[in-house]
Amino acid sequence: MLDRRLFLGGACASLCLPEAASANLRLPTGDRIAFSVLRAGSDIGAHVVTFARSGDEVTVQVAIDLVVRLGPVPVYRYEHRATEIWNGGAFRSLDAQTNDDGKRLTVKAQRLANAVSVASSNKGNYEAPANALPSTHWNRRMLDGPFFNTQTGELLSNAVTPRGATTVETSSGRKINVRRFEIVGPITLESWYDDQQTWAGLQFKGKDGSQILYKRQD
Q1: Which residue in 91, 103, 122, 202 has a CA-CA distance of 20 to 30 Å to 194?
Q2: Residue 218 lies in a domain
Q3: What is the separation of C-alpha 77 from the centre of its chain, rounded to a whole number of angstroms?
Q4: How far apart are CA 123 and CA 2, in angstroms?
Q5: What is the pTM of this model?
Q6: Residue 57 included in any domain
Q7: b/e per residue, 190-208, with b = 16+ CB within 10 A?
Q8: What is the pLDDT of residues 51-71, one digit of tens each?
């Protein structure tokens, strides 16, 4: 079975100043990013991120729907919905719900004056550092400071290492230039960002050794 921690990462060990969180957000052209999720080359679903702007406020909606099948029979289902609110380029709040093959999880986060308050059904309540960000990957700045898992609420201490440039294919076969970042923690994955710092995909190995690939849709 797929462990949802394989999709939503933990936290980077390096810290940035809280003021850095107020820098302008880099939003994708068209206010939407969508990925096909492939497991061992087979399509198992989609991960879609949409952005709505209203003045200085940005609302980010994350929708993930995955189904793993054994032949025609579904053996694993995963649904995740998250809403992030940003204002003036700074993270303000998160409300996330997950159905992990029947196990339901919730995470809520709210920025305070000197911390981020996180309340989750799995990890309880705690205060994360003021510059902590949700692990939704679309925001390249996530890699520059601590981040918390939007399924479990867990704040981890992952190491992030730049791995240079490469090219990856989109769903149409178009090649795009990306920068690779390796995230090492409970699992190891690579997350990719294009020349505009827009999230371009990720890859990792599942618990069963199968390759999981996010391929950006054109």
Answers
A1: 91
A2: no
A3: 18
A4: 20
A5: 0.86
A6: yes
A7: bbbbbeeebbbbbbbebee
A8: 999 999 999 999 999 999 999
